Amino acid sequence: MKSITYKKYIEYSFLRYALSIIVILFIMMIAFLSVNFKLIENLENKKNTQNLLQVLEKQFLVYDYELENLSTDEDIIKLLSDGDNNKLSKVNQTLYSFVNAQKLKANFILLDNNSHIISSNLFAGNKEMFLESRVLEKVKAASLNYTYITASKMNYDYEQESSLIFAHTIMDGDKIIGYLFFDILSKDFEYLFMSSPIDSIVLTDRYDHIIFCTGKRNVDLTLKYPADKYMDTFSKDRDIDINGTRYQGHINTFIDGQFILYTMVSKEIQRRSFGYGILFIVLSALIMLFMIPYITKRISEKNVSAIEELIVLIDKMSKGKSVEHPIIFEEFNVLLSSFEKVLKEKEDLIKNNYELSERKRIMEIKQLEEQFNPHFLFNILETLKYQIMIDKDKAVEMVLAFASLMRYNIYYGSTIVPLGTDIEYINDYLMLQKLRYNRRLTYSIDIPEELQECLIPKLLLQPIVENSLNHGLVDVIHIKIKAECKDDILIISVEDDGKGIDSNKLNKLRDSLEKDSIYKEHIGLYNANRVIKLLYGNRYGLEIDSCQGTVVNIRLPFMLGSEDE
């Protein structure tokens, strides 16, 4: 493959991909606007309709609920039945406070059984018009102990028009003593709907009696909403074409179908928004087409300049021959060659350092392990010298046991052995020491069968047992060796009832185990602790405590194996 410069490749690639992306984005944006604009529009309109519906339903239920409560209010009943005018002020305050607290305001009218207005916030002239209306006759005709709701078209003075009336009889026992009305005017509905983004709203009862409709200019139009002409369109949530204008219509019922809410939103704004969106995309695409060549040139020059500078620096660092690579960029061939050389040198360095570190670790472990042997040898030979002079038969027995120990110490190949194998060694060692100290020394070994195959460092226990004899023996001493497993940690305990260690020396001994310097008085303990930490990490090691005697707990990872492992 013929090599080309990276600069030319950047220019060609950026130009090709940029044009492809612009075309794809143009198609996707148009498709998105075409397919999803209506969906987004419908969701938003439905949301606005549902919000309006919730407000209306809540207000209607509040009026219904309050009428039920007020029909049994003691103050109102006393005012109507007894003519207690002392209650009038309190009743007025109650009714005024309620209607003023509502989003949908209303006028209230409280009548006695003789149709005399006891309390009301209607204008004086409007009170007479209310008493002369057919609404009162309807309520009296119903005479039921529930909230009566009816559409109203009373035209009050001051251009006020009644739209909806809530009414309830007031009973004193079985006797009707009055009536309470909440009269909602058209202007109150207008105040409630004025913040809604919906163009046209029509509210009817179940019998298609119009309660309220927005916009006098749309009276002729809105009067037809409930009619059969538009009912099918509303029920299917389809667009409505009325007098050349397209609307999106919705129909919803509430309060068990007692009321119907018709809403329409003009689609002219949405159409214009869609057209503006298309125009914006087209203009953006044209601008990008004119800017792409300039941007391509600037990007290629800047990137190639940085790469060329990097090549010079890397080439100075690499001092060997270049390696040929099948890369189409000439600059990248040089760059890859330089990187390869530096990487190879780095890998060789890491490998050498790791091998050096590993060999150093193994050597340190071997060195520490070997320190056991001469120390132990001198102690046994010293014991054997005295035993030959006292009892030659026992001396022969000691030699045989000593030979077994030395064979294990010198010829046993692995540095990691099963716990049971090291326990056999310790048993021979303690037997030798028993021959030396006679009754002054007793010992016991308790190792569960399931822990016999746990792997431990070779000769781990010997320096700890030896330390108990050297520093704990006064007159007599008992050494107890046991093992257990807790949370995947093997704990081997070497406990004696010797003279123990005072607190100052104990703290000094504990500190010495965690330092690089060796506490020479207890070199065996230090070596054992060091071997464990080198092999398994700082989580493991020796723990020493002393009160009446000394206890050394050895913490090791729980690992099962065999001598062959």
Can you put this structure into words, describing what you see?
- By secondary structure, the protein is of the alpha+beta class.
- The chain has 4 domains: 8-55 and 271-309, no CATH class; 71-190, PAS domain (Beta-Lactamase, 2-Layer Sandwich), CATH 3.30.450.20; 198-266, Profilin-like; 371-557, Histidine kinase-like ATPase, C-terminal domain (Heat Shock Protein 90, 2-Layer Sandwich), CATH 3.30.565.10.
- The chain has 16 helices and 18 strands.
- The chain has helices at 6-70, 74-81, 88-100, 124-132, 134-142, 186-193, 219-222, 228-235, 268-317, 330-370, 372-390, 392-411, 419-437, 462-472, 503-513, 523-536, and strands spanning 107-112, 117-120, 148-151, 155-156, 160-172, 175-185, 200-205, 210-213, 239-242, 245-254, 259-266, 416-418, 441-446, 455-457, 477-486, 489-496, 541-547, 549-557.
- The strands form 4 sheets. Strands 1, 2, 3, 4, 5 and 6 form a 6-stranded antiparallel β-sheet that branches. A 5-stranded antiparallel β-sheet has the order 8-7-11-10-9. It has a 5-stranded mixed β-sheet with strand order 13-15-16-18-17.
- A hairpin with a 2-residue loop joins strand 5 (160-172) and strand 6 (175-185).
- Helix 9 (268-317) packs across helix 10, helix 11 (372-390) packs antiparallel against helix 12 and helix 11 (372-390) packs parallel to helix 13.
- It is elongated, with a radius of gyration of 51 Å.
- Mean pLDDT is 76; it is low at 216-228.
